[in-house]
Design brief:
Blueprint (H helix, E strand, L loop, with lengths): L1 E6 L2 E6 L21 H10 L2 E4 L4 H18 L4 E3 L7 E6 L10 H7 L4 E8 L2 E8 L2 H16 L8 E4 L5 E5 L29 H12 L4 E3 L12 H14 L5 E5 L4 H4 L11 H17 L5 E4 L16 H12 L5 E5 L14 H6 L10 E6 L23 E6 L15 H8 L12 H5 L10 E5 L15 H12 L5 H12 L4 H22 L29 H5 L5 E2 L16 H8 L9 H4 L2 E2 L10 H25 L6 H33 L14 H5 L1 E2 L10 E2 L2
Parallel strand pairs: 3-4, 3-5, 5-7, 9-10, 9-16, 10-11, 11-12, 12-13, 13-14, 14-15, 15-16
Antiparallel strand pairs: 1-2, 6-7, 6-8, 17-18, 19-20
């Protein structure tokens, strides 16, 4: 619980002593007393007083945060001074508010508008620390970074930290609806209480803003990409403006999704043709209205001509025509349009994964300067593993944003432990070879490869009304990892996991190492027991929970059978020149590697090749035996995760320990379900035995085909249907 105290003339939020029970509601901002006596002594000697000048809403919340954090970590009050009068001062403020003797101009010149500098200094013979930046929001980010050093038990006597974001727009996309349902959300109802806004503001909005600012997230699209035009009416713009007012001091700008047909649905027009003058005027006027409600509005996120959503192709116009209409409306205000490249036409394509490239690559250079094309990390749909999208590197004249999915639609949703930092890092470090070796995806999205003037990255959020925010304790780590990698896409996911464990659970070295390694290996475990060797989209239809590789629907590319293509000869989708030739969308070095059976990594083998059941792989095992081995390796990994978690019981509070333990039990049971269902089904094609060394499926195929997993997580997870 928090209690308010009046300190000087400012109302400061301070953390009380930690309660005995923990529920995860504090996320990684727990600010507990440093457990190492030697480190605590160092902190108390080095941090005795706070000097902070300047007034603004952002500096006010920065002051609140550092006092809150220091009181919890040091377990004592910190004196407020107007000048550094003793050793152990911490001076906080923008460069213009610092005393003249503190000169950090050189460092500040390198970190940009949002960056910060944290440095040990001496002023008048007194030793202390400065946290400074070029802007108020940079100061706030610096405060959070300083508190992270303390939370993770780092030494602070000789600090020399200078950091600025590599990517300009770092945002969460909320797929939230008017009724507070969340598309692909697994953490309760939507965070935004639309029926109570704008008059009633949940205190969780501020905590949400704090959490985002602590990891450098500076944007939030608060409405579903499957957009509802009602969100653009004055009634709902007032509600969005109330949210924006809470987020603004934390450096977070609000974005809204725009339904392409809104001129018809709420504007009374007969068309939404982007080249129609009346339509263009309607969007210009509507955008002016949005800015009257939200002066710092960031812009629109648009999903068009995909999965039944309206778009410019309905009028025989291009994606560029549609995006440019929005861009022209936003340009006078400095806003941007983020046009999603996830296109899914009504016509069945030769190969679904080719569609985004085929539609967007020819349009490179045709978009306005304030258009960003938002591309999913892979060419399909947030699978446990995909190769990177071939669009990255292929559009040098059009800024491409990355879109990751933080919510685990295909990776076990609320219960399975899957640390996505490893997935994000794998994609960001992938080499496109667009300009030769070293042309990584990270260099595409941070603008350094093609000199983009605008850069951005978005993560589909899994933040909801659950007390722990994300449906499970470890799902919090994916929100955290996304923010850290959005700030610095070259950071190691292992280091990020280390910090998250220390901030969230414990600083005990042995326990941190165990939990960190469990996290790092967890994503590969999920890949192995769900979609090994490059298999994809073999999940159940609709809710995408549980295995259903046998499903064959009326539309082929909605069907798992379309993606695995198992037959008596083998399994896998031939995307080489003898098949769909999707591999040709990559630059030659990548194309040749993926197209050649001798060089394609086993991790994406069946994504690009149809491989015979008896063919030998690099392991020396046949494809069938390797498939069996991988599925079993996934199950074994979950067993290992359970043992690891048991070994850290003494280092984790009992409430969260038991919750994670119960979820790991579900994961272990469902990993076996995935393994047995998939292998039993694929065995009908391979006609090969599961080697005796491995556990045999507990039931015949018909049993697994009758299992149903309801989307309502309050019901039994899976049940057999008679």
């Amino acid at each position: 619980m928090l209690r308010r105290i009046l300190l000087g003339s400012a109302l400061i939020l301070l953390a009380s002593r930690p309660a005995l029970a923990e529920d995860g509601s504090e996320l990684w901002l727990r600010y507990r007393k440093t457990s190492d006596p030697a480190r605590l002594a160092e902190y108390r000697a080095t941090i005795q007083s706070l000097v902070m000048h300047g007034e603004s809403p952002t500096l006010t919340v920065a002051r609140e945060e550092i006092l809150r954090g220091l009181r919890g970590i040091l377990d004592r009050e910190v004196t407020i001074d107007t000048e550094p009068t003793r050793d152990g001062f911490v001076i906080v403020g923008t460069a213009s508010n610092l005393i003249p003797s503190i000169n950090v101009a050189r460092e500040l010149g390198k970190v940009g508008k949002e960056g910060y500098v944290i440095r040990s200094i001496t002023v008048g013979g007194r030793k202390g620390t400065v946290i400074t930046a070029n802007t108020d929001v940079g100061v706030l980010y610096g405060v959070f970074a300083f508190l992270r050093e303390l939370q993770t038990s780092k030494p602070i006597r000789k600090l020399a930290i200078a950091s600025g974001p590599a990517i300009q727009i770092r945002m969460l996309d909320h797929w939230d609806n008017l009724d507070r349902s969340v598309e692909r959300g697994y953490a309760g109802k939507a965070l935004w209480e639309w029926s109570k806004l704008p008059d009633t503001l949940s205190p969780r909005y501020k905590d949400y803003a704090r959490a985002n600012a602590s990891i450098g997230i500076n944007g939030a699209s608060i409405t579903n990409v499957n957009a509802n035009a009602k969100f653009l009416t004055p009634e709902y713009l007032a509600k969005s403006a109330a949210i924006a007012n809470v987020l603004r001091p934390y450096g977070i700008r609000v974005y809204l999704t725009a339904r392409f047909s809104a001129p018809i649905e709420i504007g009374g027009l007969k068309t939404a043709d982007p080249l129609d003058p009346a339509v263009r005027k309607w969007w210009a006027d509507k955008t002016d209205e949005v800015y009257r409600f939200i002066p710092d509005f960031g812009g629109y996120v648009v999903k068009a001509n995909s999965e039944g959503q309206p778009g410019p192709q309905d009028y025989k116009r291009t994606h560029a025509d549609g995006a440019n209409m929005f861009a022209d409306a936003l340009a006078p205000h400095g806003g941007v349009v983020m046009w999603r490249a996830f296109v899914y036409s009504q016509d069945v394509p030769t190969d679904r994964v080719k569609q985004a490239y085929d539609e967007f690559k020819p349009l490179d250079g045709q978009f306005r300067d304030n258009v960003m094309v938002q591309v999913k990390n892979g060419p399909l749909d947030f699978q446990p593993r995909e190769p990177f999208s071939p669009l990255f590197g292929a559009m040098p004249k059009t800024p491409l944003m990355m879109e990751f999915q933080i919510t685990k639609e295909y990776l076990g949703q609320d219960t399975h432990l899957a640390y996505l930092g490893a997935l994000f890092e794998e994609v960001l470090r992938a080499d496109t070879y667009a300009k030769g070796k070293g042309s990584t995806v990270a260099k595409v999205i941070d603008g350094s490869l093609h000199s983009y003037k605008r850069t951005g990255i978005a993560g589909v959020a899994n933040v909801g009304s659950d007390v722990n925010w994300t449906g499970s304790q470890f799902n919090q780590s994916n929100w955290y990892a996304f923010g850290r990698l959005a700030w610095n896409p070259r950071e190691a996911s292992r280091d990020i996991a280390d910090d998250w464990v220390r901030e969230t659970f414990t600083n005990d070295q042995a326990a941190v190492a165990r939990i960190r390694e469990m996290m790092i290996r967890s994503r590969e475990a999920v890949v192995n027991y769900m979609t090994p060797l490059g298999l994809a989209h073999i999940m159940a239809t609709g809710h995408h929970y549980g295995p259903a590789p046998w499903v064959k629907l009326s539309r082929p590319d909605w069907s798992p059978t379309y993606y695995h293509r198992a037959d008596s000869i083998g399994i896998g989708f031939d995307r080489t020149a003898t098949g769909s030739n999707a591999v040709a969308q990559y630059f030659p070095a990548v194309r040749d590697r993926y197209a050649n059976r001798k060089t394609v990594p086993d991790s994406v083998l069946l994504w690009f090749h149809h491989v015979g059941w008896g063919e030998k792989l690099s392991s020396g095992r046949t494809l069938w035996d390797e498939l069996v081995w991988r599925y079993n390796a996934g199950v074994t990994s979950v067993h290992d995760m359970q043992r690891t978690w048991t070994n850290v019981q003494d280092n984790v509070d009992p409430e969260r320990f038991k919750e994670v333990q119960s979820f790991l039990a579900i994961q272990e049971k469902e990993a076996r379900w995935w393994r047995d269902a998939a292998l039993t089904y694929f065995q009908t094609f391979s006609h090969r035995p599961i080697p005796a060394a491995f556990e045999q499926p507990a039931h015949p195929l018909a049993y697994y085909q009758q299992l149903r997993c309801p989307a309502d997580r309050n019901k039994p997870r899976c049940e057999a249907i008679p």
